[in-house]
Structure formats: C-alpha cells, structure tokens
Amino acid sequence: MDAEQLREYGHKMVDFIADYYKTIENFPVLSQVEPGYLRNLLPDSAPNQPDSFQHVLDGEVAQLILEFIRLHIQAKILPGVTHWQSPNYFAYYPSNSSVAGFVGEMLSAGLNIVGFSWIASPAATELEMIVLDWLAKMLKLPEDFLSAGQGGGVIQGTASEAVLVVLLAARDKVLRRVGKDALEKLVVYASDQTHSSLQKACQIAGIHPENCRLLKATSSTNYALSPEFLSETISQDLTIGLIPFFLCATVGTTSSTAVDPLLSLGKIAKSNGMWFHVDAAYAGSACVCPEFRHYMDGVEEADSFNMNAHKWFLTNFDCSALWVKDRSALVQALSTNPEYLKNKKMADSKPAKTWFLMYSGKLAKLVASQANMVVDYKDWQVPLGRRFRSLKLWMVLRLYGLENLQCYIRNHIKLAKHFENLIAQDPRFEVVTPRIFSLVCFRLLPVRDNESHGNKLNHQLLDAVNSTGSTFISHTVLSGKYILRFAVGAPLTEEKHVNAAWKVLQDKATSLLAESL
Fold first, then answer.
1. Which fold would CATH assign to domain 402-515?
2. In the chain, fewer beta carbons within 10 Å around the N or the C end?
3. Which positions ≥6 away from 4 have C-beta within 8 Å?
C-alpha cells in the first residue's frame, strides 16, 4: 500500500467509524446473534485473489473499501458486536475510547514499531517512562514509584498481566532468600472479592492451588478484606511451616467496588516480609480527583500499584499502568538477554560501559542496556514484543488535561448517584452495597421473603432487560444473593440514557412481579 492508497483507505474508514459513533444508539447494545453465526457467513478458507479484484486493477480504491464496509463490516461483523461504547452500556466495567485515544492508536499502528528495548525505538521507551511519571503524579503516588529512582512505571496489556509479573517478581525474590525448593510452601493472600486474574497468575507461577488464600469478605466490612482475619490466617500458616510472600489488595473490587484498607494491610505485609500489590484497575481513575484520593491512603506501603487507563480514563484498550518500587525485582524475574538482542558495541568505555552508535552521519551516544542505564521494557513483561501504547495515553493527557479528566469522572459518579436515587424511590428495589464510585449494586425484592425466589427473579429480570437490546447490564453474587450491577462509564452516556435504562428495568420488573403472584 503506497501513501496515497493509505490516505484514501484511511479517509473512508475514519468516515465509517465516525458515522458508527453518530448512529451507535441505533444498534442493540448486546449482540443478538447465536454462537457460530459468523462461520455461516464467511468462506471456509481465505481467498486466493483480493475481493473486487477488477476494482483494484482499475484503480478504484475508494469503491473497493466502500464495498468492503457495506458487504462485510456492516452486514457480517456489526451484528455480532456488543457495543461497549454505546451510551446505553452499563455492564461489567467500562472500556473507554476517545478522539485523543483513537488518534494515538492510529499513530501507533502507522509507526508500527516493536519497542522491546530502548534501542529498538528510544522514543517509545522514554515517552512511556515520562507519561507514567505524569500519571503517577496525578495519582499522588509515592516518589518511590517514579522512574527517577529505583522504581518506575510500565504499560501492560491488562491488570491480569500486571498481577502476573509482580507475582513472578515476588516469587523469585523470596525463593532467592529461602531456596528454590520452598516453592510448595509459598502462600498468596487476598479477599474472595479479588479479581480472578490472581488465581490464574498463581496457576501460571506454580503456586499450589491450596496455598492461594482467598479470605471471605462479608457485608460487615462492605466486602473489604479484614486485617484481623488476614493476620489470623497468616499466623496459622506460619505455625505449620508455610511462607507468606504475596498480598493483593483491591481499590474497587469487580463485584461491588469494595475498597480494602491499604494502610492496615500494608503494615501486615511489611511485618511478614511479603510483597504488597494494590489492584486499582477500575477505581484508580477516580483517585485523580482529590475527593476520592483517600481511598488510596496506605499505597505508600505497597510494592506495586496498578490501574487501567483503558477502563475509565478515555484511553483506548489496551493500556494498563503498573508501577513498582523496585524495578530490579521485575528484571531479575523476567530478563533474558540472547546474543541477537544485545546492542552492537561500537566503542567501549570500560568504567562507564558506554557505547556509541553511528546514525545519520552523526555520532549518537547510546547508553547500553547491559550497563543498566536505560530501560528495556522487555524485561518488565511476559512477551518480548510491545506496541507503542504510550502514544495514546500521552495524547489523552495532553489533549484533555487533568481538570477535564476529573470533570469526566465526576460526571459519571453523579449519574450513578442519580440512578441510586431512582432506585431509592421505588420500594420494589433495594441498593445492596454502598455506592462509592460509579457502580450501583441493586436488586428487585422478591414478593415472598424467599432468597431462592429472589435470585431467580433477578436472573429473569437481567435476561428480560438485556434481551430488549436497548440497554445492557451485568450481575454478581454477594453473600449468596444474585445482584444486578449498573456501571456508569461509557463516554457518551448522559442522564437521559440512565433514565431510559431505569424505565426498562421498572417495566420488566412490573411484568415479572405480576407473573409471580
């Protein structure tokens, strides 16, 4: 594809995407197709010749892309899409997009670099370090997490990858102290409200399943992890010769946005020589607002901290920010240095171990990766290759600025509070847990005081609402109760969309309650 062809294709695709956003409310939020629908629409194998080959020969590039959009994207792909950017999307947690994020993603795709090391693309490494320092300062993280010291930030794909790499770092750190044969004695701690990615990380890291302690959290603590329960469990494990080494706390759990008491938990972790990780994948975004920053109090005790800019911070997926206080722990656990990735030695100054590289006829000084004076992000993650993801975060921070991002977060929280008030006005419903951020957990009360019937009733209500296609919500289970979740966070959501979703919920509830009499 030459430059002019890219220009023509690109214009048509941008027009299509812009039109998609303009009409996104016309689509069912939740895809209505059946499993396997797409296989019936596509051939069994890839074509030998390009579609509309004659158009290509005739130079009718614009016609080709328009036909491709009409015949394939609109007719075959969009029916199978659940529209996460719809203003009527209230399920799970949001996955934000924005003009700035989109343009940054486009630029990343256009440059198409593979920035595994500093020399592979210096701008990719250095911009990532800078923007993660910016974001850390917005969150008022301790200076230990900044790149000027022994720590720093790195963009992972998801919070699942973030917890895996710090778990691996913590595992190797403790095994260097107690011996590699002690793997079967290592114990991980978290509440049972912690994201399931921790369990997967334990499986990958070789932690015995019975040594992954997911401690029960109850309504008495609003589903936060109890420090007393944690201390008691650790003491019992120490008594039988096990080795506590990793504690994961959460700011904004997936089920109900519970906030674990970081300060108390961090002190317990420190007194037992454990790695303390804080998962703020969803709620971390809200903590750029001063009125919500106190939910992170105690983060100074943490060894690592994670938040997803792609959830609620207008940065297109994927962009999960992870900070560590000691980057050497990651490097020791994840570093490989095969010959084909080593920097070419042009000149060697032995005391400083500096090298030089000829570039564009000028002598450019290159500080070698082997001298530990530059960051090679390949050693901070599981894969070798990595995309230029910092571009989109940089554009979001530059084009919106902190004040606009704070207003964006506050507006969603205001809309969630509005929804909470609507529920309070209808005695048929109840709010189940205190709303902290922009998630409301609620349920329809059963006609009879029967939890089994209540669970069935709310399951039916969820299905009835989602089957309309006009809105999409999800569920969880808390203390054995089937709970509905209403998460406000789509960039296009306004109060009218919240009101419309509530009307659907009320209407479907009325029908279900009439049937149950």
1. Aspartate Aminotransferase, domain 1 (3.90.1150)
2. C
3. none
